[in-house]
Amino acid sequence: MWHALSMRPPTVIATLAVFVATALAGGGEATAAPPPPWPAVTPATPTPQPIEQVVAPLAAPTVSASLAEVTNVYTTMNQTKYAHRYVENTKTGYYAWDCVGMTDWILHRAAPNAWTAMHQALKIRRGYVPTPTQWAGFFQGPLPASWLSVTTISQLQPGDYLVYPQHPATRFVGHSTIAAGPPMLMADGSYALRVYDSTGTPHGPFDSRLTDPRAINHSGLGNGTMRLYVDANGTITSAAWAINYAPPAGAKKPPTMVGIPVTIGRALN
Predict the structure, then answer these.
(1) Which end is more exposed in the chain, N or C (fewer Cβ atoms within 10 Å of the end residue's Cβ)?
(2) pTM reported for the whole predicted model
(3) 48, part of any domain
(4) Cβ atoms within 10 Å of 152's Cβ, excluding its own
């Protein structure tokens, strides 16, 4: 999720990032850890029941430049953490982000024209990122040639950017994600979707951050399964943080997303 103080420092000093990564690791040099194994998605039932054990599939990274970029960072990183002051150190493999910090950085590397068009349209100051509400508003207006609007479940593809605006009535602060795979139809007509994001709140019991030793405090860049709802025409109307997930006692509860629209765009270049 996003925080009001989110910003990207103009310059990231490598030595500082090394110090931070080492300190957070408790001393010693940070070492890479392979991504944890995922439960297999059983295709025997085309429309599984919407239960928390559902894990939506991943797509091959090559289907999208944005998906390829975020997958590369995920598989090569040494440490990650959810934070509102950003560190992106490709040399040490240490990444600290909130949701829009991560998606904005991936967008800049994977589709620079789309990034520039959005930042210019929203008049984002240098060194800052758009809020989820600003980004969602951009998706809801006429889009430049470097972007494609996505509104239906049949149009949704891996690598698309899904942005959820702030909702003060429910204290939802907004969020942004990247589709990590195709939507999977469930028995009640809703869809399971694996996403990449940077968060401190896992998307259900199979969220990668819960078992990934690189994720400090079970936070930062990872992937998990969200839920999308559609109307009779297949238009994506709303979402849920996880699928019927009841967190154990003492665990962070997923945010309420009732009444929050889903805005989606595809960065073309």
Answers:
(1) C
(2) 0.85
(3) no
(4) 13
| Tokens encoding 94 | 């240490």
- List the structure tokens of 3: 């925080």
Q: What is the pLDDT of residues 94-146, one digit of tens each?
A: 999 999 999 999 999 999 999 999 999 999 999 999 999 999 999 999 999 99
- pLDDT (mean) for 230-235: 96
Query: Residue 40 falls within a domain, yes or no?
Result: no
Structure tokens at 219: 């936070």
Instruction: Give the DSSP letter string of 114-178.
Output: HHHHHHHHHTPPTT----HHHHHHHHHSPPPTTEEEE-BTTT--TT-EEEE--BGGGTB--EEEE
CA 133 remoteness from chain centre:
15
Q: In angstroms, rounded to a whole number, what is the distance separating the alpha carbons of residues 35 and 201?
A: 18
Q: Decide: 255 and 166 in contact? Cβ < 8 Å.
A: no
Domain carrying residue 185: 14-34+53-267
Report the number of distinct structural domains present in the chain: 1
Report for 17-26, 34-43, 138-147, 167-176: range of highest mean pLDDT: 138-147
User: How far, in Å, CA of 9 to CA of 233, rounded?
Assistant: 43
Cα–Cα distance measured from residue 192 to residue 87, given in angstroms and rounded to the nearest whole number:
31
**Structural domain contains residue 6:** no
**Coil, strand or helix: which one is 268?**
coil
Q: Token match 């002051």: residue?
A: 85
